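Weekly modeling sync, notes
Attendees: S.R. (lead), two postdocs, one rotation student

Agenda item 3: backlog of single-chain predictions. S.R. asked that every request posted to the team notebook include the full sequence so nobody has to chase files. The rotation student volunteered to paste the first one in as an example of the format we agreed on. Action items at the bottom.

Example entry:
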Amino acid sequence: QAGARLKRARLNYEEAQTLGFFDAIESVFTAEFLRNPPYQGKPTEVPVFIIGMPRSGSTLVEQVLSNHPSTFGAGEIKEFSRQLNMLRGRFPGLPKYPQIVQKMNAPQFNMLAEGYLNKLVALAPNSPRITDKLLTNYYFVGLLHTLFPKAKFIHTRRNPVDTCWSAYTKLFKDDMPHSYDFGELGRYYQKYDHLMAHWEKVLPPGVMKTVVYEDVVDDLPKMARELIAFLGLPWDDACLSFHESSRPVKTASVVQVRQPVYSSSVGRWKRYGDGLKPLAEALNFHE
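Predicted structure, as returned to the notebook:
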C-alpha cells in the first residue's frame, strides 16, 4: 500500500474522463451500428484478440493457443492503436475514438483494416491464426469486429477481487494509473465489466468466448479443447504442454506459464482478511 500510494502520487489520472470514455464507447457501438456497419470488413480469420483485465489468465490462454501448430502467439502488440493514430494523423479532421467511426468513410476503414492486418500477418506469414494479446483492445471490440467480422475474441475473466488485487501488487511498465488505489481500481473494473456485458449483448453469436481462469485451472484439457474448437482448428495434444514452450513471454506472468497449471492463485485475496475489504466494497463484490 505504501508503494502504491507513492506511485499514484506521481500519476496524473483523470478518473471522470476515463470512466466517461467507457460510456462513449457504448453509446457509439450500438446493436444497430453493428447490424448495419459502415464497412463490409475483411473476410479474414487470422486475427484472434485476447482481451480482459491484466492478471486474469490471459497469458496462460495465449500459451495454450500458441502451442497449436496453426497458431502464432504475437503477445501484447500495440499495432491497432498505432494504426488508428496514424489514420488521425493523415486525416486531422477526424475526431478521437470512439467518435471517429461516425466520421470515417469506407476508404478510411479499409486503410485502417489493411494497415493493421499487414503488420499482423508479417509476424507469421504462414500462420492461419495469430493472437494479439493487448488486453485493452476491449475498448475496440466493436470497431475490430466491423473491420474483421470473422475474427474471434477470447475474453479472459477471473474472480474480480483476485484480478484487481493481483494488479494492485504489480508495478506495470505501462502506466495503469487506476491500479494503485482500491477505490479507483474497483470503479474502473466495474466500468470494464459493464462494457464487456455490452459487447456480449451486441455482438453476433460465436464471435466472442469468455474463458474463466478458475475453470481453466479446474479442467485444463476441457477448456483447451473448447478454445481450439472455438477457433475452428483441429485438436492437437501439444496445447497441453504449454509450459514447455520456449516462446518469449514479456508479461508479469512469465514465471507462472513456465509451470504446469496450479490452483494456488485461486482465492488468493482471502489470505489478507479485512485488509482487502475496501477493494471488495469498491467492486461491490459479495461471495
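Discussion: group reviewed the output briefly. The chain has a mean pLDDT of 91.
Action items: rotation student to repeat for the remaining queue; S.R. to check formatting next week.
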